[in-house]
Design brief:
The chain is an alpha+beta fold. The chain has helices at 5-10, 37-44, 53-60, 73-87, 135-149, 169-172, 186-200, 204-220, 224-243, 295-306, 326-337, 349-390, 442-466, 489-501, 536-568, 577-587, 590-595, 598-602, 609-624, and strands at 17-22, 28-34, 64-69, 94-95, 103-106, 115-118, 127-129, 255-262, 266-275, 278-288, 316-319, 342-344, 398-407, 410-420, 423-424, 430-433, 482-486, 508-513, 519-524, 527-529. The chain is built from 19 helices and 20 strands. Strands 13, 14, 15, 16, 17, 18, 19 and 20 form an 8-stranded mixed sheet that branches. Helix 14 links the parallel strand 17 and strand 18.
Amino acid sequence: MTFDLKEELKNLPDSPGVYLMHDAEDTVIYVGKAKILKNRVRQYFQNSANHTPKVRAMVSHIAYFEYIVTDSEIEALVLECNLIKKYRPKYNILLKDDKNYPYLKVSIQDAYPKVTRTRVLKNDGAKYYGPYQGSATVHHMIEMIQKIFRPPTCHRRFPEDIGKGRPCLNYHIKNCFAPCTGQVSREEYRQVFFEICSFLEGNHEKLLKALEQEMQQASKNLEFERAAGLRDKIKSIQALSQKQKVINAKNQNDMDVIALGVLENKGFAEVFFVRRGKVIGRENYRLNQTKDMNPAEILGDFVKQFYAEREDIPPEILLEHPVEDADMVSQWLSGRKGKKVTISTPQKGEKKKLMEMVKKNAQLAADNYEIQILKESEKHSVLSELGLRLGLSSAPERIEAYDISNISGADSVASMVVFEKGKPANKKYRKFKIRTIEGSNDYGSMQETLYRRFRHALEEEEAIDAGTLSREDAKFLPYPNLILMDGGKTHVAAAMEILEQMDLEIPVFGMFKDDRHKTKGLVGMDGEVELSPTGSVFHLLTRIQDEVHRVAISYHRSLHEKKGMQSELDEIPGIGAVRKKALLDAFSTVSAIKKASVAELSDVPGMNRTAAETVWSYFHKKGEK
C-alpha cells in the first residue's frame, strides 16, 4: 500500500502518543513522543528553514511514519524510552545500552543469597546495584565485599552441601565465614547479605552502628574471636567512608547530580551518586547523535534513558540545565519509586558548587575522548606510512607477529601477538606448543605454528558457512593484513612456503635485530626496507617485536616452571593439590620452598608440623644423596 503523506497528516489524532519514523528500507530512524500527536508530527513536514541540519537530514530519509496513541503523556514517555532501547534509531540520542554495563546482583530472594556480577537486569526479586563503568570497578567492589564480609565464593549449594566435606582453603586463610561447616545458621547467613546490601547502598552509618552493637554483645558473651572479626569489619568500612567526599554532613541528602560535557557531535553525561551526604560513586556515559542539539535537549533525553531501568532512584535529581517536561519526568519517577522525586537546577550554595565539580568531570571526559581520537588518528597515519613503506595496497589494520622460544632446542613454544589499529589486542594473542618438530629448528617450528593457526581459520570459515559458528565467536578470524616474523629473510621464506601451500596471500616481513639484540629493521623477499630509526613506524615495530618476544619467553618459562612443580611437589607424600597451591601462593617458586625452614612451612595456611617436616625432609634428604 502506498503511503500518502498528506492524507496521513490529516488523520493524526489530538491525543498524546509516540511516533516512529521509517526510512525506505523499513528501518526505524527516529522515535519521539508528543503531548498532541497531530501538532508534533506535522512540524517535521512544514517549513524546513526552521529545522536544524540534523532534523532536515532525518526528514529527507523519512519514507513513512506510524504512531501509537497513549492515555497520558507519562505513558508516552515510558513507551518512547522502551522503543528507543529496542530500535536504537539513527537520529535519536543514543545512550550506550545498559546491558553493556556490569551490575552487582544480590540474590536476596533466595534462602541462601549470593553476590554475582551480571549485565542483564531481571525482575526476579534480587537486588541490583549499578550500573558500574567497567569490569575493573565491579572487581574492586567485589574485593571490598570479600575483604569486609567474607561471603563464600565456592560452587557449593546451600543448604544441600552443608556438612559435606571439609571446608576449603578460603576458610583456613580467613577469607570465608564457611557456612559449609554447619556452624552458621540460615538467619546468620542472611544477615551477612543484608549487611552487604546496606553497604552497597552507601548506608554505612546505620551498618556501623549495628556492627558496633553486635561487637559489644559478642564481647560481653566472651566471644572474643567473633568480636575481633567484627572490629576489623568496622575498621574497613570506616576507612572506606573516610575516603568518600562529604557533600552535606548536616542534611545527609540522597541525590544524583548530572552535568554534560559536549563535543561537536557527542555528549558526555557525568553522574555523581550522593547518598547520605557522601559521594559513593560516579559514572560517565557517552551519547551519540547530539549534533545541532542544545545542552538542555541532550540532558532531557539522557535523563529519560538513564532512569528507564534504574532501580536506585533518589528523591532528588540535580541537573546542570533545566529540561523540557521536567515535571512529567518527575511524576513518572515518583510513580516508579513510590515516593516524591524532585528535579531541579541549583542556582547557588553547596549544590551549585557540587554541580560545578560534576561539570568539570564531564568536560574532562569530553576532552579526554577528543585526545583519544587524535591519538587514534595519529596511529592510523603511522599504519598508513608502514603500508606505504612495505608497498601494501592499504594500511595494515591487523598485524600478527610470531616468535619461537626454546632452551637448547627443548620444549619449543611459539607466540602470536595481534596489533589492531596500532594497539595490542591482548585477548587475541595465541600460544602454541610445538608438537612435530624436534630440536632447535626455528624454521620448522614457525611453519608448524603458521599451518596450525591458518588451518584453524579455514576450519572456522567452513563452520560459519555451515551455520554452526558465528563470526563473532571465531577465535582465529579475521586474517591479518600483515605478518611479521621475529627473524630474517630465511624466516620469511619459511613462512611464505606455508602460505603458498594453503593458497593464502598475506604480506610477510621479518623483524631482524642488530648485534646488541635491538630492533634494526624489516626485511622481505626483495631485501631490507629502509626505515628511519627515529620515526614512528620504527617505534611501532620495536614495540611489536618486544611484545612478541616477551609473550614467547613468558609462556616458555611458565611451562618450564609448571613442569618443575609437577615433577617436584607432586612426588611428596601428603602434599595434595590444596597444600601445593598454598605453598606456591606463599613462596611463589619451588626453589623458595626448598630454602624454607620447617617453621616457615608450618605457618602456611593448610599446613601443619607433620606436613612441613615431610616437605623439608624430602628436599634436604634428596640433596644429600
